[in-house]
Amino acid sequence: MSSPCERPEPFATPEEFLADFPELRKHACPALRLHPHLGEPTRESSSAGGPLLWPTEEPWPTCSLPHYVATPCYGENGLMFDTQEDVVFDEPVALQPVLQLFARDLPQGYSLPHGAEVLQVLWCPNEHSDPHEAFGHHYGPSVALRWRSSPEVTDPLAQQPQPHTKEKEYDVPACELAPEPIMDYPDLDRVPEELAERVMRWKGQEFDCEEEPERHTYFALMMARRGMKLGGCEGWEIEDPFPMTCSCGTTLEHLVQIDSMEGPALRNLIIGRAYALNIYYCPASLEHPYRINIQ
Question: Which domain of life does this protein belong to (predicted)?
Fold first, then answer.
């Protein structure tokens, strides 16, 4: 199976496309594709799946939620099938590091929200049915976020706990990052209808989701870019876009995308049916609840 990030050559470059649709520029959103690749990151470096800069005095997060477990069974005809049910393990599951970003490692012009110095993303590497931070219809990892000031971590945790149970599809190997600044563009449901229709008919072709979307420049190289990224626009593979608001009434903003099967390093990472997990935060305050959505 090919990676979602591997696309056949489209008809034209983004620059040629924008020459025909200059009004799309106002919908552009800067992002950083992080390009995780296998390495030996330290707790003092940005990484995916690597060790975290974690205070010894702070308890390591665990998951006590029910886990959606598939159990092999045999029918009367002797054929094996899976039954799935929510199971609570006897011991909580230690969360696994997924991403650590130091603001100092970001390219010039990029920063973490509210001037944060460190962003840490962890998850329970097991299936969960609609954890509290999810926007419903979620079968995947449960996620935790931490925001830090690195100088405050004077006694970092040396030995980090490991989950006693994990799905191999959610295991994130230790990777270093190679951030690439990009300009991301939204799903066509997020732009004016008249503009979206003209984009789909570009160069005289009536776009059909069933017929080579990878040949259309906007869908292949501009819209909701695949891969692990900071910021940018999320894709909508499963359902139509819907309002995402914090309990305070503020519209949530896209923070991070964790994608499936990205390159050699994460080719075994599969979220749902090779979807992406998106994390959202409230721009009013980092202390407000974050949310997640799989698309």
Answer: Bacteria
Q: Does residue 81 belong to any structural domain of this protein?
A: yes
Instruction: Tell me the per-residue pLDDT of 202-221, one tens digit each, with 9 for 90 and over.
Output: 876 555 544 555 667 888 88
Burial 173-197 (b: 16+ CB within 10 A, else e): ebbbbebeebebbbbbeebeeeebe
Measured CA to CA in angstroms, residue 11 lies from 212, 223, 229 at distances of 11, 15, 25
Residue 268 token pair: 């075994």
Q: Is 1 a member of any domain?
A: no
Q: Report the number of distinct structural domains present in the chain.
A: 1
pLDDT single digits (tens) 257-284:
999 999 999 999 999 889 999 999 999 9
pLDDT for residue 3? 47
**Cα 143 to Cα 77: distance, rounded to the nearest angstrom:** 40
CATH number of the CATH domain containing 140: 2.30.320.10
Q: How far is Cα of residue 80 from the mean position of the Cα atoms in its chain? A: 33
Range of the domain at 242: 14-294
- Give per-residue burial for 11-26: e unless 16+ CB within 10 Å, then b: ebebeebbeebeebee
